[in-house]
């Protein structure tokens, strides 16, 4: 028998109120995990790297390639390659959270 809980087990426990007393602890743990993941992603990027927009809004940006132009404290400055497809975001540098982009590995 496994000691691990499935996502469905956790969701059911939340819906049934079994985790109400632990909600803040769970929320803080999830925030710390997300922050650590974003910090690792940000640290792995270099100015000039090619990235792909993978989440966020507006949805038409998802899948578009961009170039890393700057690294700020919590955001990455990117410039979209296809200016027309990026519409109003195609002109200049826009900022994105690290979890909104993924590095495009060089195939060469």
The CATH architecture of the largest domain: Roll
- CATH-assigned fold name of the largest domain: SH3 type barrels
Whole-number average pLDDT? 92
State the low-pLDDT regions, or none. none
Approximately how much beta-strand content do the residues carry? 15-25%
Figure out the total of helices: 2
Largest sheet: 5 strands, antiparallel
Briefly, what CATH class of the largest domain? Mainly Beta
Q: Give, in order, the helices and strands.
A: HHEEEEE
Instruction: Work out the radius of gyration.
Output: 18 Å
In terms of topology, how is this protein built?
Blueprint: H1 7-15, H2 23-44, E1 50-53, E2 65-71, E3 76-80, E4 94-96, E5 101-103
Antiparallel strand pairs: 1-2, 1-5, 2-3, 3-4
Outline:
By secondary structure, the protein is an alpha+beta fold. About 30% of the residues lie in helices and about 20% in strands.
Structural features, described:
With 108 residues, this protein is of the alpha+beta class. The chain has 2 domains: 7-41, no CATH class; 45-103, SH3 type barrels (Roll), CATH 2.30.30. Helix content is 29%, strand content 20%. It has 2 helices and 5 strands, in the order ααβββββ. Strands 4-3-2-1-5 form a 5-stranded antiparallel beta sheet, with no helix packed on it. The longest helix has 22 residues, at 23-44. The N and C termini lie far apart (46 Å). 13% of the residues are buried.
Salient structural properties:
108 residues, alpha+beta, SH3 type barrels, 2 domains, five-stranded antiparallel β-sheet, 2 helices, 5 strands, 29% helix, 20% strand
């Amino acid at each position: 028998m496994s000691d691990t809980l499935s996502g469905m087990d956790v969701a059911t426990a939340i819906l049934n109120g079994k985790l109400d007393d632990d909600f803040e602890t769970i929320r803080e743990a999830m925030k710390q995990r997300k922050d650590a993941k974003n910090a690792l992603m940000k640290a792995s990027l270099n100015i000039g790297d090619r990235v792909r927009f993978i989440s966020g809004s507006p949805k038409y940006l998802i899948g578009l390639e961009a170039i890393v132009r700057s690294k700020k404290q919590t955001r990455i400055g990117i410039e979209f390659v296809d200016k027309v497809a990026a519409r109003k975001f195609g002109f200049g540098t826009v900022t994105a959270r690290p979890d909104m982009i993924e590095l495009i590995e060089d195939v060469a």
